[in-house]
Amino acid sequence: MPPRGDRGRGAGGPARGGGGDRGRGGGPDRGRGGAPRGGAGGGPPRGGAGGGGGRGAPVSFVGRGRGGGPSAGTGAGRGAALPPLPSGVQAIGVPRTEHGSQGRVMPVLVNAMWLNLPDTTIYHYDAAFEGDKSFRPKFNREIIEALRANNTNIFSQPPIYDGRANLYMVANLPLTGKDKSTKQPQQVFDVPISKPAPPGGAARPPKIHRVKLTLVRVNDAESLLRYLNRSMSWNENVATVIASLNVAINSLAAQTHPSRGRSVYPLGGESRLIGQGLEVVRGFFQSIRPTPGRLMVNVDVSIGVMYRKGPLIGTCLDFLGLQQNSDVMRSPLVPNQRNVRERNSLSKFLSGVQVRARSANGGFQTVSIYKLTDRGANQLTFNDNNNQPVTVADYFRRNNAPLKFPTMICIQTKKGMQIPLERCDVEPGQLCRMQLTPDAQSQVVSFSTQRPEDRLNTIKRASQVYNYTQSHYVQSLGLNVDTASFPITTQARVLDPPRMVYSGKQAQVQPRGGTWNMIDKMFIQAQPIFGWMLVILETRFWNDNNTAMMWKDFVKGAKAVGIRFNVEEPLVATINPHSVALANLGQAIATRAMDFRKKHNAMPSLVVCILPENNNIDIYRAIKNWGDIKMGVITQCLKQKKASGAKPQYWANVMLKVNAKLGGINAVPDALSAIADTANPTIFMGADVMHPGPGSDKPSYAAVVGSLDTAGARYMSQTNLQPGRIEMIQDLEAMATVILENAREYRLKAEPNKSNTPWRRLVFFRDGVSEGEFAQVLEQELPMLQAAARNAKLDVKITFVIVGKRHHLRFFPTTNNDADRSGNLPPGTVIDRDIISPLEFDYYLQSHAGLLGTSRPSHYIVVHDENRFSADAIQAISYKLCYVYARATRSVSIPAPVYYAHIVCSRAETHYGPDDASQYAPSVAGTSTTDKSAARRQAFDSHAQRYQRVNKNQATKMYFM
User: Fold this and answer.
1) Domain span including residue 460
2) Per the record, where are the segments of Gly residues compositional bias (predicted)?
3) Do 452 and 826 form a contact (C-beta atoms < 8 A)?
C-alpha cells in the first residue's frame, strides 16, 4: 500500500531529504569584494592514498577507464581504483570507480560516529487517524503511546513512531482485519485521551480517537547491509530501514524536548532574544547516513527560532518593536482605528501559539490562540452563570482579580473563549517559522557562529540529550551507537589553488589561504567608461566636499586597475529620496541622465548612486529596476558611510563589480589550470531555484548562468519565475538555449583565434536539489539541457553535477598546524573516502577560507558524465571555479556559475516596479477562496503579469554583480 502524505521515508541515503527555503538576498553593493557563503565521518582510511601532487602540477581531463591519469607532478599517482559494481546494481547517477589522489594528504575529524546494525526485520505500518485529521506531532505521539499502553498484548515492544504517519516495529503486530484494496493486515483502535478539568470545572469524559494501523511492507535489514557493501541498488526497502533507524535514534529526545524534523532543542539551553517576539535557541541535529561498508550517525548543532516565552504582553510589545517600559496604554494593544493594521499583523503572528492562561480563581489552563479581539476587555461581553451579560473586565473584578489593563485587547480561542492578555504567559519551547527582519537575521547569525573547536565541544554534549543507552527505542532495534568513535577520523587531501592571471606589474599571483589582493594588479580585460554620473541620494551626512573627494578617489581606483575614462569628471545630481515617491525615483534619475545625453550625445556608461546608510533597500530595488530592467544602464550602489573617505582597497573591490558589469574580465586562472583546457573548450553553467518563505504563495524564481569565454570568467544569465516550491526548472531548455547560442557567438567575435576549436564540453552545476530529487533531475532537466545544446547547434558532451550545501557534515583539523587563522581547515580540503556514498560518485570540498564560525563544506554529486572525468579532474574543476568569482579576491564556497545563479534569483524583487505591491503584499491565496489551487494560479498569474525582463542592453552582461 503506498503511504499517505509526507512521510519522510526518503531519509538517509545518500541522505534523500529536503532542505529549507532560502531567504532572499539582494541589497546595496558594499564594495567589500564579496564574502564566501557559509562548514562527513570515516574510520581508518581505505585503500592507498595515491601520493600527493606536486605544487603547480596540472590536472588533465582524463576519462575514467581510458588509461593515463592526472599529470604526474611530484609523486602523483592514479587514484585508488574500485572494482566495478556487480551486474544489476545501479547507482543513482554515476557510480564511483576510483578515489582522487592529487593534493597533500592529512587526517581530519568529522562530526559523526559509527553505528552497528544487527540483521533484523522491521515492519512498517501506516498510522491513520479518523477522518485523516492532522494533529501536532507531539499530540500524535501521545495518542500512539496511549494506544500502546492500552494494548500491551499486541505491542510487545514500544512502537517507533515519527509523529505523523509512519510506525515501525521489530515484531509483527497481530492485527485482526485486512485492508480491502491491498489485503494487508489492518485494524482500527479506539484510543481514549483524557484532558485535565478546566479551573473550577468538572472533569470531562475522555475523547475517543480512532487510529487505523495498516501494514505497509516488511523490511529486512540485510538489504541495507548489502547496499552498504555495494551489492544492492538503493531501493524502497533500504530507504525504509534507514528511515526507521532515524526515527528510533531521535524518538526519546523528541518526546522530552521541543523538536522539528531531526532537530531537538533542550529547554533551558542557550538562547538569545532577537526581537519580533522571538528568541533563538541552540539545539542538536542527528541523522544516520550510509557510507561504504557501515552506517554513521551525523551529529551537529542546530539553531531554532521560538516564540518568546513569558508574559504574553511582553511578547506582543517585542513583536511591535516597543520597549517593555514603554507606555503600553498607547500601544496597539489598546484598540483604536489608527492601529488596526498593527493588531492584525500581531494576531496573525500569534495564531496557534499556546499560552498558559490564569483564571480569575487562580487556576491554570493551556489554550491555543485563534486570534486577537478587536475590542478591549471592558467592551467584550459574555453571559455569566446567571445568564446575565457581563464584560470580561467586570468578570475578573467581581472575582477579586481586577485587571491592570482593562481596556487592552484579549486573546480568543477557537471555541470563543476570551482571555485578557495580562492573564496569559507564552508556553516555552514553541518553534516558529516566519520571515525575519534583517536585524533579527543578523542576530541569529551572530548567535549561531561558533569557532570550530567550540562547535565540536558543543556537539560532544549531544549524547547526554539523546541518551542512547537508556533509549528503549534504540534498544528495541538492537542498535549500538559507538559514542567512543566520535569524532570520526578520516583522510582528506588539500588541493593546490590556481595561479590567477592579471595585467600590470604582477601579472600572476599565487593565492595563499584562499585569498589574494589587488596591489599592483590590473584587470586582464578592463572596460573603459565613456562618461558617468554620480547620483547623491544622501542629503543629511553628505556635502560637496564628500562629492569631490569621492569621485576623484573613484577615478583613481579605476585607473589603478586599468579602467580608463573618456571624461573623468562625472555629472553630479542630488536627489532627496524622501521628497520623491519611490515609484518616481527612476524617472528622477532618468531626467538627469537625459541632461548627460544632451551634453555628451550618449547615455552614461555607468551611474553610481550614494545611498543613505539606513532604510535603503527599497531605494536600492528602485534603482536596479530602473537601470537593469527599464533603461539598460549599468548602476553601482554604494553606502555613504563606506564611500566617504574610503581606502584604495575599498575602491579596488568596487572596481571588481564595476568592470564585470561593464563586460570586462578581472582575472583568469593560469594555463595550467584544469578549467583552461584549450584542447577541449568547456562551457560552465550554474542553475538555482529560490523558493518563497513559509506560508507565502509567491512564485519561485529560477536562474541559469553560463560562461561565454574559454577561460570560464565571463558569464551571462537567464531568469524566470515559476509556480511556488517547484524545484525542477520548467523553462530550462529555453533559458539554456539562449546562453549556449550567445556562447557560440561570443567565441566567434571575441576569440576568433580560438574559435576554430569548437565547444566540446558542458559542465553543469545544479544547486538546491535535495537528494530525493536526483532521479527527477535526470528525468526532467538533463533532457532539456541536451535539447538546448541541439538547439544551439553545439556538439558538446555534458557533465551534470549537483552541489549541496544544506547538510550537517563539518570537518575539523586534528592539529593546529592543519588549521588556518579561523581554526578551520585550509581551502581546497577535499574528502572522497569513508564518509561518502556507498555507490554514487560524490565528494566533499571545502573551497573557501574561514572567516567567522565553522566553515561548511559543499557536497558534490556527479549524476551524469559523458566526459568521463577522472575523480581528480572533476574535483580540480570544482575547486578552481571557486576562484573565478568576479566580486572577490578570494575563493568562495561553491563554483562561481552556481553562486551567480543564486545571486540572480535573489535579485527577483528588482524585476517588479518599485511601486508594485505584489512583491511585498500577501498572496491572494491567503483570502477566503475555497478553491486553493485556483487561488494559487491567480496569485502566480498576477506575479507573472507584473514580472519584467532584463533590458536587452544588459542581457549578456553580468549586471547582477
Assistant:
1) 121-306+447-486
2) 33-56, 64-78
3) no
